Amino acid sequence: MPRRKTRLNAAAPHEQVLEKYLLKLSNSELFHDPERFPKMSSASWFGNDHPMELEVGSGTGEFLCALARKEPGTNFVGIDVHKKSLHNAAALASSFALRNIVFVSADFKLMYPLLAPQSLHCVYLHFPDPNVKRKFRNRRIFSERFLDEVHRALVPNGRLSVMTDHRPYFFEMLQLAERDQRWSKGHADRYVVGFEPLAKSRFQLRWERHGLATLRFELIKASAASTRGGIE
Ligand SMILES: C[S@@+](CC[C@H](N)C(=O)[O-])C[C@H]1O[C@@H](n2cnc3c(N)ncnc32)[C@H](O)[C@@H]1O
User: Which domains does the chain have, with CATH numbers?
Assistant: First the structure.
């Protein structure tokens, strides 16, 4: 199945909507001087002490906005690099008058220094770009470094949810995760087929329309060890 880019034609939301729901971080400043940014926390970003969850590559925001509507006592952060998707997500959050969500325009790989230790209850990586061409493989988000950083940022027993329709990428991610002894699985089977959230994301809907199964695994932060072998 070719992974063509589809166009989002919606007009940019009103300036006030973008001000309220979209935080733009400069990738160049994140790269050169990450210390100038405050750590991402409920206190600094939402002015409260509620639990916080994060979606990496939140796309057009359907999944995260549905969670934010259901759980007003939790803060949600969606990070993406694609401007039109972020505009769409901000407009959706505004249409529900959500007060517990913000979308961030930034490359997540540059945001690692902003992740505060034990600050996140859940991280979602849903339908990450598989970057199938060899020359683009280094753009993939899921890696040993990603697991290290997410592990550090999660609270004890915090969850990392990963899913995709792309079977080869899925099994590569699963194998990498299974070599890392700091996690347990959130399900009895090795992985799960299908996912029925409150709202399916744009990409889940798209690939299921094409008859491709959604493959998912959920990791639970089982140990406080900072190294993959589990020995500090
Ligand atoms: C296939 S889409 C999936 C979007 C959404 N999770 C969904 O299920 O519909 C992958 C998303 O990841 C974003 N993305 C890719 N690399 C990224 C990075 N380094 N940092 C943040 N977002 C990224 C893309 O812009 C795109 O919106």
Answer: 15-221 (3.40.50.150)
